[in-house]
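User: Here's a structure from my thesis project, written as structure tokens. My advisor, Dr. K., wants to see whether a designed sequence matches the one we expressed. Can you design one independently, without my sequence as a hint?
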């Protein structure tokens, strides 16, 4: 999948692997209970999340 993304192929990928999403995504969409909570480019999504729910999620998975 990484090779396909790097070749420019358009894909919609659903994943819980944040490292993978950060590496290959052009846009990250975070959903909770079926609702879009936040969407942004990976740089801003991971380094400057806007919603409190996104901040909580990232703090729980990235700091373990």
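Assistant: Designed independently from the structure alone:
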């Amino acid at each position: 999948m990484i090779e396909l993304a790097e070749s420019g192929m358009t894909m919609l990928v659903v994943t819980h692997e944040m490292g993978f999403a950060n590496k290959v995504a052009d846009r990250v969409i975070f959903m909770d209970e079926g609702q879009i909570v936040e969407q942004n480019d990976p740089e801003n999504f991971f380094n400057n999340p806007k919603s409190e729910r996104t901040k909580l999620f990232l703090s729980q998975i990235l700091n373990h």
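When you compare it with your expressed construct, this may help: The radius of gyration is 12 Å.
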